[in-house]
Specification:
This protein has 90 residues and is mostly helical. The protein has helices at residues 2-16, 29-36, 43-53, 70-83, and strands at 22-26, 58-62. The two termini are 15 Å apart. It comes from Araneus ventricosus.
Length: 90
């Protein structure tokens, strides 16, 4: 669920800063399956769907993990660093 929460926060950032034509990339198929699921009733999942509904310029993209995708590799590095800290920046 951490990946879905990260996507939720990324979309918040995109909307708050009025960014356009943005790709949000993740290597978590489960995160995308959860967001696409019609049976998941959690509020923050529906918030993601609602926020994306009218924003066709925001793309969610899956990338294969550990295949040299620069942004994904950097994200993995930051996640590892955060996992050893007591406090996490959100």
């Amino acid at each position: 669920m951490a990946e879905v929460f990260a996507i939720h926060k990324a979309i918040d950032y995109i909307l708050d800063h009025e960014l356009y034509d943005v790709k949000t990339v993740s290597d978590s198929r489960l995160a995308f399956m959860t967001i696409e699921s019609l049976s998941d009733n959690r509020e923050f999942i529906w918030q993601i769907k609602e926020r994306l509904k009218d924003r066709e310029d925001i793309k969610l993209m899956w990338v294969r993990a550990h295949k040299g995708e620069m942004g994904n590799e950097r994200g993995d590095l930051l996640a590892k660093k955060a996992s050893i800290r007591d406090l996490i920046d959100v």
